[in-house]
Protein backbone atom coordinates (compact mmCIF):
# COMPACT_ATOMS: atom_id res chain seq x y z
CA UNK A 1 0.00 0.00 0.00
CA UNK A 2 1.43 3.36 -1.06
CA UNK A 3 0.67 6.34 1.15
CA UNK A 4 1.94 9.94 1.00
CA UNK A 5 5.15 10.57 2.96
CA UNK A 6 5.19 14.35 2.37
CA UNK A 7 2.49 16.99 2.86
CA UNK A 8 2.01 20.65 3.85
CA UNK A 9 2.31 21.01 7.62
CA UNK A 10 -1.40 21.26 8.48
CA UNK A 11 -2.32 18.35 6.20
CA UNK A 12 0.58 16.25 7.52
CA UNK A 13 -0.59 16.60 11.14
CA UNK A 14 -4.17 15.74 10.14
CA UNK A 15 -3.00 12.63 8.28
CA UNK A 16 -0.97 11.48 11.28
CA UNK A 17 -4.13 11.79 13.39
CA UNK A 18 -6.76 10.35 11.01
CA UNK A 19 -4.96 8.91 7.98
CA UNK A 20 -5.14 10.12 4.36
CA UNK A 21 -8.95 9.70 4.11
CA UNK A 22 -11.04 12.60 5.41
CA UNK A 23 -12.70 11.92 8.75
CA UNK A 24 -13.86 14.29 11.43
CA UNK A 25 -11.36 14.54 14.28
CA UNK A 26 -12.28 13.42 17.78
CA UNK A 27 -12.02 16.08 20.52
CA UNK A 28 -8.64 14.80 21.74
CA UNK A 29 -7.31 14.76 18.16
CA UNK A 30 -8.65 18.24 17.52
CA UNK A 31 -6.95 19.55 20.66
CA UNK A 32 -3.66 17.96 19.65
CA UNK A 33 -3.98 19.39 16.13
CA UNK A 34 -4.37 22.93 17.46
CA UNK A 35 -1.43 22.41 19.82
CA UNK A 36 0.80 21.14 16.99
CA UNK A 37 -0.16 24.11 14.82
CA UNK A 38 1.57 26.37 17.36
CA UNK A 39 4.90 24.53 17.05
CA UNK A 40 7.77 26.39 15.41
CA UNK A 41 5.90 29.62 14.67
CA UNK A 42 7.68 31.80 17.25
CA UNK A 43 11.33 32.57 17.95
CA UNK A 44 13.03 32.35 21.34
CA UNK A 45 11.80 35.87 22.19
CA UNK A 46 8.20 34.85 21.50
CA UNK A 47 7.91 36.81 18.24
CA UNK A 48 6.03 35.22 15.36
CA UNK A 49 8.29 34.07 12.52
CA UNK A 50 7.59 34.30 8.79
CA UNK A 51 8.41 30.63 8.26
CA UNK A 52 7.87 27.67 10.58
CA UNK A 53 11.14 26.76 12.33
CA UNK A 54 11.46 23.02 12.92
CA UNK A 55 15.09 21.92 13.44
CA UNK A 56 15.67 18.34 12.31
CA UNK A 57 12.40 18.07 10.36
CA UNK A 58 12.96 17.47 6.66
CA UNK A 59 11.10 19.76 4.28
CA UNK A 60 11.10 20.72 0.61
CA UNK A 61 9.54 23.43 -1.50
CA UNK A 62 7.05 22.74 -4.26
CA UNK A 63 5.14 24.93 -6.70
CA UNK A 64 1.36 25.06 -6.43
CA UNK A 65 0.82 26.02 -10.07
CA UNK A 66 2.28 25.18 -13.47
CA UNK A 67 3.55 28.73 -13.90
CA UNK A 68 5.69 28.23 -10.76
CA UNK A 69 4.58 31.56 -9.32
CA UNK A 70 3.48 30.34 -5.88
CA UNK A 71 5.43 27.89 -3.73
CA UNK A 72 4.65 26.04 -0.51
CA UNK A 73 6.56 23.84 1.92
CA UNK A 74 6.11 20.07 2.18
CA UNK A 75 7.17 18.28 5.38
CA UNK A 76 8.33 14.69 5.84
CA UNK A 77 5.53 13.07 7.83
CA UNK A 78 7.62 10.44 9.73
CA UNK A 79 9.78 13.28 11.12
CA UNK A 80 6.67 15.16 12.27
CA UNK A 81 5.28 12.04 13.94
CA UNK A 82 8.50 11.54 15.89
CA UNK A 83 8.36 15.19 16.93
CA UNK A 84 4.75 14.74 18.03
CA UNK A 85 5.74 11.75 20.18
CA UNK A 86 8.49 13.86 21.80
CA UNK A 87 6.39 16.91 22.67
CA UNK A 88 2.76 15.84 22.99
CA UNK A 89 2.48 14.19 26.47
CA UNK A 90 1.77 17.44 28.39
CA UNK A 91 -1.15 18.15 26.04
CA UNK A 92 -2.75 14.70 26.24
CA UNK A 93 -3.63 14.80 29.96
CA UNK A 94 -3.10 11.07 30.37
CA UNK A 95 -4.78 10.03 27.10
CA UNK A 96 -2.99 7.79 24.59
CA UNK A 97 -1.65 9.34 21.41
CA UNK A 98 -4.72 9.52 19.08
CA UNK A 99 -3.08 8.63 15.75
CA UNK A 100 -3.94 6.42 12.75
CA UNK A 101 -1.56 3.50 13.23
CA UNK A 102 -2.57 1.71 10.03
CA UNK A 103 -1.52 4.75 8.02
CA UNK A 104 1.67 5.30 10.01
CA UNK A 105 2.83 1.69 9.60
CA UNK A 106 2.86 2.20 5.84
CA UNK A 107 5.07 5.30 6.02
CA UNK A 108 8.25 3.42 5.14
CA UNK A 109 8.79 4.55 1.55
CA UNK A 110 11.91 6.61 2.29
CA UNK A 111 12.94 4.98 5.55
CA UNK A 112 16.11 2.88 5.33
CA UNK A 113 18.04 1.99 8.49
CA UNK A 114 15.21 3.45 10.59
CA UNK A 115 12.58 0.88 9.55
CA UNK A 116 13.08 -1.28 12.64
CA UNK A 117 12.88 1.75 14.93
CA UNK A 118 9.74 2.91 13.11
CA UNK A 119 8.05 -0.48 13.56
CA UNK A 120 8.90 -0.49 17.26
CA UNK A 121 7.58 3.03 17.71
CA UNK A 122 4.26 2.15 16.04
CA UNK A 123 3.95 -1.01 18.13
CA UNK A 124 4.65 0.99 21.30
CA UNK A 125 1.75 3.34 20.51
CA UNK A 126 -0.47 0.34 19.68
CA UNK A 127 0.28 -1.32 23.03
CA UNK A 128 -0.55 1.91 24.86
CA UNK A 129 -3.91 1.95 23.06
CA UNK A 130 -4.55 -1.70 23.99
CA UNK A 131 -3.71 -1.06 27.64
CA UNK A 132 -6.03 1.95 27.72
CA UNK A 133 -8.83 -0.18 26.26
CA UNK A 134 -8.24 -2.85 28.91
CA UNK A 135 -8.58 -0.23 31.64
CA UNK A 136 -11.98 0.75 30.25
CA UNK A 137 -13.24 -2.87 30.27
CA UNK A 138 -14.49 -4.58 33.44
CA UNK A 139 -16.35 -7.63 32.02
CA UNK A 140 -19.12 -7.17 34.56
CA UNK A 141 -16.95 -8.54 37.34
CA UNK A 142 -16.65 -12.01 35.73
CA UNK A 143 -13.66 -13.59 37.59
CA UNK A 144 -12.48 -15.72 34.63
CA UNK A 145 -12.55 -12.79 32.24
CA UNK A 146 -10.87 -10.55 34.79
CA UNK A 147 -8.11 -13.12 35.27
CA UNK A 148 -7.60 -13.30 31.50
CA UNK A 149 -7.55 -9.52 31.37
CA UNK A 150 -4.88 -9.39 34.07
CA UNK A 151 -2.67 -11.86 32.18
CA UNK A 152 -3.12 -9.86 28.99
CA UNK A 153 -2.26 -6.61 30.77
CA UNK A 154 0.87 -8.15 32.28
CA UNK A 155 2.02 -9.45 28.90
CA UNK A 156 1.44 -6.09 27.22
CA UNK A 157 3.32 -4.21 29.93
CA UNK A 158 6.27 -6.59 29.62
CA UNK A 159 6.31 -6.11 25.84
CA UNK A 160 6.03 -2.34 26.27
CA UNK A 161 9.01 -2.32 28.62
CA UNK A 162 11.05 -4.41 26.18
CA UNK A 163 10.21 -2.09 23.27
CA UNK A 164 10.95 1.02 25.32
CA UNK A 165 14.35 -0.43 26.22
CA UNK A 166 15.12 -1.18 22.57
CA UNK A 167 14.11 2.33 21.53
CA UNK A 168 16.25 3.94 24.21
CA UNK A 169 19.41 1.86 23.72
CA UNK A 170 20.55 3.53 20.46
CA UNK A 171 19.78 6.95 21.89
CA UNK A 172 21.91 6.25 24.96
CA UNK A 173 24.85 5.40 22.71
CA UNK A 174 24.34 8.58 20.71
CA UNK A 175 24.33 10.71 23.84
CA UNK A 176 28.13 10.55 23.75
CA UNK A 177 28.05 12.51 20.46
CA UNK A 178 27.04 16.09 19.90
CA UNK A 179 24.48 16.82 17.20
CA UNK A 180 27.25 18.27 15.02
CA UNK A 181 29.13 14.95 15.19
CA UNK A 182 26.14 12.93 14.00
CA UNK A 183 25.69 12.25 10.30
CA UNK A 184 23.20 14.73 8.86
CA UNK A 185 19.97 12.93 8.01
CA UNK A 186 20.74 9.88 10.18
CA UNK A 187 18.15 8.64 12.73
CA UNK A 188 20.37 9.97 15.52
CA UNK A 189 20.62 13.41 13.94
CA UNK A 190 16.83 13.65 13.56
CA UNK A 191 16.25 12.39 17.11
CA UNK A 192 18.62 14.94 18.65
CA UNK A 193 17.18 17.81 16.62
CA UNK A 194 13.61 16.81 17.43
CA UNK A 195 14.60 16.63 21.08
CA UNK A 196 16.06 20.14 20.91
CA UNK A 197 12.90 21.42 19.22
CA UNK A 198 10.74 19.79 21.90
CA UNK A 199 12.81 21.29 24.71
CA UNK A 200 12.67 24.72 23.07
CA UNK A 201 8.89 24.47 22.85
CA UNK A 202 8.41 23.41 26.47
CA UNK A 203 10.92 26.00 27.74
CA UNK A 204 9.44 28.98 25.95
CA UNK A 205 7.27 31.48 27.89
CA UNK A 206 3.83 29.95 28.33
CA UNK A 207 5.20 26.47 27.64
CA UNK A 208 4.52 23.45 29.83
CA UNK A 209 7.61 23.94 32.01
CA UNK A 210 6.83 27.61 32.51
CA UNK A 211 3.29 26.71 33.63
CA UNK A 212 4.62 24.00 35.92
CA UNK A 213 6.96 26.49 37.55
CA UNK A 214 4.14 29.01 37.95
CA UNK A 215 1.79 26.56 39.71
CA UNK A 216 4.65 25.48 41.99
CA UNK A 217 5.43 29.10 42.88
CA UNK A 218 1.76 29.75 43.66
CA UNK A 219 1.70 26.72 45.97
CA UNK A 220 4.94 27.83 47.67
CA UNK A 221 3.39 31.25 48.38
CA UNK A 222 1.09 29.69 51.00
CA UNK A 223 -2.06 30.98 49.33
CA UNK A 224 -3.75 27.57 49.52
CA UNK A 225 -4.04 25.05 52.34
CA UNK A 226 -4.01 21.95 50.10
CA UNK A 227 -2.41 21.01 46.80
CA UNK A 228 -5.76 19.86 45.42
CA UNK A 229 -7.33 23.25 46.10
CA UNK A 230 -4.34 25.05 44.59
CA UNK A 231 -4.52 23.00 41.39
CA UNK A 232 -8.30 23.32 41.18
CA UNK A 233 -8.36 27.10 41.61
CA UNK A 234 -5.36 27.98 39.43
CA UNK A 235 -5.41 25.46 36.56
CA UNK A 236 -7.87 27.37 34.38
CA UNK A 237 -6.00 30.67 34.65
CA UNK A 238 -2.75 28.93 33.68
CA UNK A 239 -4.33 27.02 30.80
CA UNK A 240 -3.61 23.62 32.37
CA UNK A 241 -5.87 20.61 32.90
CA UNK A 242 -6.47 19.99 36.60
CA UNK A 243 -4.66 16.63 36.51
CA UNK A 244 -1.57 18.22 34.92
CA UNK A 245 -1.53 21.03 37.50
CA UNK A 246 -1.95 18.52 40.34
CA UNK A 247 0.90 16.33 39.05
CA UNK A 248 3.17 19.38 38.99
CA UNK A 249 2.62 19.73 42.76
CA UNK A 250 3.58 16.15 43.67
CA UNK A 251 6.56 16.02 46.05
CA UNK A 252 6.70 19.81 46.37
CA UNK A 253 7.63 21.00 49.89
CA UNK A 254 4.95 22.48 52.13
CA UNK A 255 4.92 26.30 52.12
What does this structure look like?
The chain has 255 residues and is mainly alpha-helical. The chain has two domains: 6-39 and 53-204, no CATH class; 205-255. The protein has eleven helices and three strands, in the order E-H-H-E-E-H-H-H-H-H-H-H-H-H. The protein has a three-stranded antiparallel beta sheet. Mean pLDDT is 78; it is low at 171-187.
Uncertain stretches: 171-187
Query: What is the N-to-C succession of helices and strands?
Result: EHHEEHHHHHHHHH
Number of domains: 2
Instruction: Give a quick account of the main beta sheet: strands, pairing sense, barrel closure.
Output: 3 strands, antiparallel
Can you tell me the overall shape? globular
Classify the beta-strand content into a percent band: 5-15%
| CA gyration radius, whole angstroms | 21 Å
Determine the number of helices (DSSP H or I, runs of at least 4 residues). Answer: 11
Q: Care to count the β-strands?
A: 3
Distance between the termini: 59 Å
Structural class: mainly alpha
Q: Helical amount among residues, as a percent range?
A: 55-70%
Give the strand line-up of the largest sheet: 1-3-2
Mean pLDDT: 78
Oligomer: single chain
Produce a short descriptive summary.
The chain has 255 residues and is mainly alpha-helical.
Amino acid sequence: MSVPDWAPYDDAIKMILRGPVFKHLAPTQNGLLHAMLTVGVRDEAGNRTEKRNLPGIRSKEYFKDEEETESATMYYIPDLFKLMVEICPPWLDGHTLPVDLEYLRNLTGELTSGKEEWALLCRKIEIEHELAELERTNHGGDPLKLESQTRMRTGLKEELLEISTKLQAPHLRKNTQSTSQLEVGSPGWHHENAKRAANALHDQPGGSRDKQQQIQEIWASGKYSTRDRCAEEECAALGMPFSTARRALINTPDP
